Amino acid sequence: MRGMQRNQLRPGAAVRIRGERWRIAAESPHEAVSIIDADGCDAGNRGVKARFILPFEPLEHLPAVASPRVVSFARWRREARASLAMATPHWTSLRAAARANITLIPFQLEPALAVTRGEGCRILIADEVGLGKTIQAGLIVAETMMRTPDARVLIVSPAGLRDQWDDELRARFSLHPEVFDAGGIARAGAHLSPDVNPWTVNPIAITSIDFVKRPDVMRSLEALLWDVIVFDEAHTLGGRSDRAAAAAALARRARCVVMLTATPHSGDDEAFARLGALGDLGTAFPLITFRRTRADVGLPHGRRSILLRVRPAAAEIAMHHALDEYARLVRQQTEGTAAGPAAGLVAAILTRRACSSACSLARSLERRMILLADEPGAQRDQLALPFMSGEDDDEPGAELGVAGLRSPAEERRWLEHLVSLARAASRHESKIRALRRLLARAREPALVFTEYRDTLQHLAAALADFDPLQLHGGLTASDRRRALRRFTQDDQRLLLATDAASEGLNLHHRCRLVVNLELPWTPVRLEQRIGRIDRLGQRRRVHAVQLMTRGSREEEFASRFARRNERIRDAFDATRTPPHTQPAALRQESEAEAARLQAARGLSTNVQETPAATRPPLTVVTRHGTARGTTWALRLPCADAAGHLVFETIIGTRDLRYLLTVDDAVEHAAAIGHQRVLAALSTSIRPSLILLTGREEAIVDALRLEHARLSACLLQPGLFDRRAERAAAAQAVILDEAVQRSVARLTILGRLGHLREDGRTIVFGIAFR
Q1: pTM above 0.90, yes or no
Q2: Residue-number span of the structural domain to which 166 is assigned
């Protein structure tokens, strides 16, 4: 470094470090060393901010200007295409989408454009199942990482979807996230010193809501902030649960909150309101909702829904009638008592199990007899509801132990009678016979859903000649991946699944037939099931078949189901009024942006880009034509108050005289163009700057109000006990660390309010004789 002139390290100077071109933003000289802040200028490091220590870092000074050089038209065309393909015309233009491995569909660009335009920092993407919500969220993540090199992203999903998120971000956006569960944290911590938090190592973390909600995990996140938090299957976060509480706490630490769900409204208006308030600090950050159907985006609705009413056998009719009578007696004898609600719920569970399969009912009745024998007269006011979770598809447990009839002996006789009828009905179930006929006629891959694991296993035994695959909540992650791989890549025709497979899986390339053995509990579940095959990219008509037993309580359930679905539709449509929906201007901009990105991809096709550090700064070719003079393409960078590169674009300027050198006329035209670019940038960046500054200040206020707590409360103080004081001191350190992160970001945002021109350079030119 001693051999390099000091003025060569001035802000704006071009240098080559580690084989890449960098532009010096600031220098801090010390007695024996110098620290420089630099902005990346090559394709591989563009947008990256780095800090280097000299003379320990080998550095080569690059000339800022070189004389024009005449080259062949083929060479000029290749260089020009490569440069223009990388150019970004406006601040709001998307930068990551051009290189992403995705099909450019305009409506999928809208959420990312809403973020770059500064229109909102809380986004609900509630498109119909299969319209690419993961891609839309991935675009927001990739765009954030490209614009903010020190950004941190947290993706929270159901446990079964973590690997899929990892695959999508790697394959489509060339991002490299880290999947964090108990094993992932242990593996990461094994290579780190004890004082390093594993969550801070990788800028993109993927975890499950059930892992992150643990108090010890939440405690490890208390000093962190995120530029983007994505909540996948967000409809599960609208309740009053520890999942919802954890999500709400994390969302208050995010500069941008993205929620994904095809079914945002389950019929509970309060739950929907809680979901819509996720991450809203002081009700100052409105929710931008994207709710598109296939018709909205111009895609045909390729679904055909079929209700297949099945005639029950005599044994099944006897079973259903006896169960209805038993349920009537239970409700009659417990009405008005403390046990009434619990006993009524038991009757409902048994009825639904009977609609699933006689085998399933028999298992539950036998379990109920055992529980009542162990705990006669047991009463429970609060019951677990495992059937509401798609991951828990096992048979009901302790809730079946609630007594129903006043006389234990009478209840025992009823249960023994019902078990006998259920076993008889299970030998020849009409729904299974109907399913067998349907599969034989279809002669193509099919996905069959049932609610309970024991029904699935009974079904697998009855359809053994079809060699079915199974997918349920009792399988390990590797077993699930193996079953899915065999179904999607091999010749397996039948996949039997519970709702453990109804979220996030993409089976549309293999299958177009889905059969529901029984109605799920909610319309949300039904749409999730069908959405596994009715997705963007499905090229054939989807057939969704619903089996229903004639004359059973299942028909009553179907009627209630339809009414609830209608109520959900009405409630959600009522929210689709401004400002909750995206404006028409955003829709038009997404179409223009998709066309621009497609053109940029066309320019980069078959172009082997040369690193800017080794590319001549100017190439010129002469062409014959009626025009006279030279057209120059200029790169115009804009920097913040500290000299850090914020934005750059390429414009063309025309000198009416033929020349191969840059003179005052060209420089004057370039200066005018630079001023216009800077003025447009200042205008377009203002909404984002206002929004992000307000959000950051709100995060600081929330941190101080909550003392940066995410985890369980600190230890209660005891007599002569100093543990609470030590815990409070530790929490103060965490609070200070978190606040300092926000203060640092506010400093960066403050510099964006004072933009200036930076050194412009000529990229290429073309002269006409």
Answers
A1: no
A2: 107-291
